[in-house]
Amino acid sequence: MRWVSQAAIILGFSLAGELLRLLVPLPVPASVYGLVLLLGALHFGFLKLQSVEETGEFLVSILPLLFVPAAAGLLRSWGVLRSMWPAALLAVLVLTPLVMGITGQVAQLLMKKGGREDGDG
Amino acid sequence: MGEFLSGAPAFGLVLSLAAYLLGDFARKRLKWAWLNPLLLAVLLVIAVLLLTGLPYERYIESAGLLSFLLGPATVCLAIPLYKRMRLLRRNWKAVLGGTLAGVLSSLLGVFALARLLHLNAVEYASLLPKSVTTAIGIGIAAENGGLPAVSAALIILTGIFGNLCAGLACKLFRVREPLARGLAIGTASHAIGTARAFEMGEVEGAMSGLAIVVSGLLTVVLAPLFAGMI
Predict the structure, then answer these.
(1) CA distance B4 to chain A (A)
(2) Which of A77, B136, B186, B215 is the most buried (most CB within 10 A)?
(3) How far apart are alpha carbons B52 and B169 in whole angstroms?
């Protein structure tokens, strides 16, 4: 029953995220509200890590698989991308690694002042 | 054959799982390190759909469980993040600064491309949210005069390529700290990239998950400023 109770708690937070989104209608998906709620519940001790850990980590570990159906939808995207394919291609192939490089470099620069020496790895 | 398959409710799930396992097998057993299970799975699914003539709508309907679980799985990104809370609190400046730099460079890069290649306002607004997670990105596109369907395709392409090039990009730009790597991958290529970050390590994965949220929110705020520029 452990999996059932963990699944129920996780789905409960998904549902709470959907409710919160109705109350605070920012252009942010319900799952992000749910993430913040779950993080808050764990951090402030309303929920023990063990009561969601196994099922939650299982779901996180299959994340790439969960994208397969949505990504297969690219099958039908040629029509909408045709008019702008050079820009789309450059944006994906050049900007993606460039944004990684800039984000990572700036983060590393700021970490040196922040205190990574006692980092917990 | 197509007739039978399109009526079989488990077809989409079996196809997705088998394609993903095959992708995983190809990388681990054949040692094709460059090969990414998600990319191969997507290509296989597309090939099967084209060969059998099965409509995509039928496939997506019968694989609906996987798409549904994306929501709860995103919620669960809170778990690795919670485990690394101390690291996050000690480095919050690096988290905010790095992510902000990444979001700004992504928006500026799209602006430069739009100018260079003469994109119209609709194409430009659809390209702006390319680095953020799908559900946030299509909302941003709609709010700024872009087309959500175009954004969704660009976001998924960005994620798949980010997933593919993360290791090489980190090496090339000398991003060595696990925290910085995670932020970089999540900011540039959202949840699909995050899947790759988790393969690098737990800190990378946790920080990549965090970057999805932070960069998504920053883009919600900053994209309208950029949308007005063309």
Answers:
(1) 20
(2) B186
(3) 38
